Structure prediction request, 277 residues.
Amino acid sequence: MFNTAHFHLDQPSGEFVLGLPNIFSPNMSRIEHLRDTAFGENRQERSAFALERFLQKRPMLPNKKRGFDPKKFLATIGEGRKVLAFPTKKTIFAQGDAADAVFYIQEGKVRLSVVSKTGKEATLGILNPEQFFGEGALAGQPFRMGSATAMTDSEVLRIDKAAMMLALHREQKFSDMFVAYLLSRNIRYEEDLVDQLFNSSEKRLARILLLLAHFGKEGVPEAVIPKISQETLAEMIGTTRSRVSFFMNRFRTLGFVDYGEGGMQVHSSLLNVVLHD
Prediction:
């Protein structure tokens, strides 16, 4: 996929990332762009922008069926790793903390968020098992740009920066998998930005619900999304809670979503909202 030559990152520390191309810094700049967009001035809702790409399957992390199990491999890297348990709403790391490790979700869901200088909070994303976060540490990022919080009871593998760098250099399959994951995240950030700039808040809400239910990705969509507050949904799409409440009631009336004890069920018919011009 990529050769494993050393790639220099233009950082004050002059660090090298072993076995990885220089895609960390662009990834971080896109997060900053999304953060600035989320905290920018309110804009009028734009005309609909068709999202046929939403139906395309996105690259997922290689799993056991593809001959490589990242969880099994990470269990063999020796020192520098630690399995941590976090109850619901527990902070994994906070904005401004030292960026000295990468995290891998083994169980549960994790919410990434960022707070502006004026105290306004925005949700950048919700991550699922077999996903990484905190990878900015590998690009020489000294402090966390945002916070990570457990949305459900979660089990997370914390991998020290040095141990992660060694693992990427040591195992080509793991390096390839990690690069593919970063690229897929990069694509997601770009799609989020396009969604924010060109789509109405109703379409943005429909899209995020479908993404949370794993529609448009490999595998079987989740029947039920774990409970998520309307405040969090409002932060994720850049609108107010009252607007989210209005659209959620409409979706429920039209049969696009249902509520149960375990959470919210999203039906494939919600795709009509995303793709309608």
About this structure: The CA atoms of residues 254 and 270 lie 9 Å apart. Residues 172-198 form the longest helix (27 residues). The helical segments are 24-38, 70-74, 161-170, 172-198, 201-212, 230-237, 241-253, 271-275.
